[in-house]
Amino acid sequence: MLKIEIIQDFIYNTELNYMIILAIETSCDDTGIAILEAPDKKGGDFSVLSNIVSSQIEVHKKYGGVFPAMAKREHQKNIIPTLKSALTEAKMLKNHNSPLPISNKLSTLKNILEREPELLKKITPFLKKCEKPAIDLITVTEGPGLEPCLWVGVNFAKALSFFWDIPIVPVNHIESHILVNYLNQKEIALPAIALVVSGGHTQLILMNKIPTSRQAGANYKILGETRDDAAGECFDKAAKILGLEYPGGPIISKLAEKAEPGRINLPRPMIDTKNYDFSFSGLKTAILYYHQKQPKKIQKNKQYIAEMSAEIQQAIVDVLIKKTIKATKDFNAKTIILGGGVSANHELKTQFVIKIHENLPGVKFLFPEIDHSTDNGLMTAITGYFHKTRTKNWKELEAKANLRIA
Ligand code: KG4
Ligand code: ZN
Question: pLDDT of 342-359, one tens digit each?
């Protein structure tokens, strides 16, 4: 009986060549855990077994932004329930009949989670109860992001890697925003220009040699980036000025549907400069001054708020598209890849399609599904897959708040 089981196991592993990846993402205010079935060799498709995001928006809404210490506490609270949901959805959550004795591993777990006391309290009953799932690789965002938040994910990943003895690969969050576009693409024509626009970053990146072989080795060059605020941050700060809730991007884009841009004139900072850098803090200041000049009654007027929203969105979209088109021409890129929370913006994608059609015939445009634009574990899983040969000992892992893609 035992022999037959072993043979069947062997056939499964050699014929299908699939690996299961568990990914953990806590770089900002979303706790993301995904389980991905990925081809071991080139050619197969990805199969998403689960992708659970536990959002902290309700907590941060009251304050109009993310407070790192509060976000860290929320990650500690949410990460095990999020893992349980991800395992359940992937049909991988199984409980031991009787609690597993873990006393021999307790002191190491305590060391790993020394700075995450809330998480330590929750992890011991979980590990005692939960059977080791059939995970081949753990991958976690090591940076960039909010340092206290990154540490929760990194330490949690270390604890699981140590306890279950599963290899671990740390990944870059910006690269994840780009590589999530591989979910439904086997190959991407190169060179490509990637525009990563999130709450913390705005970067134009040249992607030269890519992981077409679905192996590590992508070659990135940052062509330009914001000198001050990120595009998403500008949406968020503008929303706060207008008395709208956090996060600002989705609210401003919704209100913008009710008006045309151009009734109010806001600046497009750095739109005509020769470099690929951005600056959005001047736009934020212009929004503040314009708003402060309005009588109190107008400041609350729905039509005025809609016109401001439309113009704010258009100013940001204009700058992002102009610079990306310029970079694509300058580097003869074959593909434009969009990523990051702001890539959820409908106008940005629609206007990109039109501008690419007019100016860059033949250039392919890739953007993620809305759920994969904002932070999630799936993007981390795909990136971990490309870097699957770069495993590390869990002892080597640390959070790197200012990590750069190149
Ligand atoms: O990538 P992300 O989830 O987190 C970071 O890595 O920062 O991006 C969050 C940002 C926020 O600033 C949010 O306002 C923005 O993405 N965002 C949007 C939209 N949805 C989210 N910005 C514009 N339009 C949207 N529909
Ligand atoms: Zn992000």
Answer: 999 999 999 999 999 999
